[in-house]
Amino acid sequence: MNILLITANYAPEIGSSAQIYQDLANGFVKNGHTVHILTSYPRDYTLTDGDRVRQLPLDTEENGVVVHRVRHPSKRDSIIVRGLEHFYIPLYYFRKYKEICRSAEIKFDACIHHIPPLPLYYLARWIKRYDGTPSIFNMQDYHPQELTDVGFMKNPVIISVLKHIERKAYKNADFLAVNSHGGIPYVVSRGADAARVGTIFNPISLDIIDDPSIPGNFKELEDIDGKFLVTYAGILSPFQGIDIILDAAQRLSHRDDILFYIVGDGMERERLEKRVTDENISNVRIHKFLPRREYLNLIKSTDVALISLDERMKAPCLPGKTINLMAMKKAILALVSVDSETADIIGKAKCGEVTPPSDVQGICDAVIRMADNAELRAEFGACGRAYLMDHMEQNVVVHQYEDVIKRLNHMNPITKNQVN
């Protein structure tokens, strides 16, 4: 088949969505499909120092995947530009899409869109009108719900506009792939046809995860041998509630053997760094984003890995980092609402513990419990890997998408049970 993956972030950018789509693309290629990526030109703030100085080709082939990059305005710290970006990206992408189809003389069997940005719905609609190609919406986050949950978006007009787009997108999508079981009732309640919705988890390539050349010597490199390493690695935004990690670290300052690393970047980074300095939180270190191999070194060296989400978030999302932690057999401590999708998956997989972000002492108790029980950590890690092999391994996910694409092209009805 000819498959187009549409994502705003792709390698060499650092982040879970870039990694997820690279693994998905490589999985399709392994199965003999022709794969194109339509993406934005990498933003400086998502690149390593070395990649920032490189000029990347707009059209190139990388490991059998044909990558098409589009330049457009982007600015991390401008809320206005970031908001507008969601609306003008479809215009830039559609112009590139037509160019790809003409120059490559190709007709795609399906387009898989990373959502958000939610207005990619318009791109899917334009593509359908242009050449009839069906679209699959891969729902990673749910806007505007997540934005309003944490009070990040308050303007009633903008919220109303986004809710209108959301309803249109769900109602008219050829297929909605949600990455958690709770995503199905969520989108159906907002207008989606239940027969065109299914749970497809994010994929991960174990070839990379199990690469023996990844050393696991992060502690040695950072001169922290002998420390019990607790890490949070990911985006630092208002949605993550990272302050809770700092609160717990302060309360655990009496444990000289426990050290917290917060690795990533985002809108909250400077404020968090200032808080660590001002409050002299000596058992916390904040580290810049790491490229994938160095990130895997970090996780391989980690004793307990944190997942953190603001407790107010009610949308059924599963953080992208979850699959990495499970694949690398890490004990997980999830600082999330007990009725969240993340808590549900942690419970089903039996790969860690869940503690509400509001319970700082509970977080401290869980860290100590895991620090003092290596057998418990090993059991959590083994269970997480086993669950991942059944639901999230690259081949499992690729086969699910293949089935959906074939049925879309043969106009057969799709039921959620056939994808779940």
Q: Could you outline the blueprint of secondary structure elements for this entry?
A:
Blueprint: E1 2-6, H1 16-30, E2 34-40, H2 49-52, E3 59-62, E4 65-70, H3 79-104, E5 110-115, H4 120-131, E6 135-139, H5 145-149, H6 156-172, E7 175-178, H7 183-188, E8 197-199, H8 206-209, H9 218-221, E9 228-233, H10 243-251, E10 258-263, H11 269-278, E11 284-287, H12 292-301, E12 304-308, H13 321-327, E13 331-335, H14 341-349, E14 352-354, H15 360-371, H16 374-391, H17 394-409, H18 416-419
Parallel strand pairs: 1-2, 1-5, 2-4, 5-6, 6-7, 7-8, 9-10, 9-12, 10-11, 12-13, 13-14
Antiparallel strand pairs: 3-4
Give a verbal description of the structure:
The protein is α/β, with parallel strands linked by helices and 420 residues long. It folds into two domains: 2-203 and 393-419, Rossmann fold, CATH 3.40.50; 207-391, Glycogen Phosphorylase B (Rossmann fold, 3-Layer(aba) Sandwich). It contains 18 helices and 14 strands. The chain has helices spanning 16-30, 49-52, 79-104, 120-131, 145-149, 156-172, 183-188, 206-209, 218-221, 243-251, 269-278, 292-301, 321-327, 341-349, 360-371, 374-391, 394-409, 416-419; strands at 2-6, 34-40, 59-62, 65-70, 110-115, 135-139, 175-178, 197-199, 228-233, 258-263, 284-287, 304-308, 331-335, 352-354. The longest helix has 26 residues, at 79-104. The model is unreliable at 412-420 (pLDDT under 50).
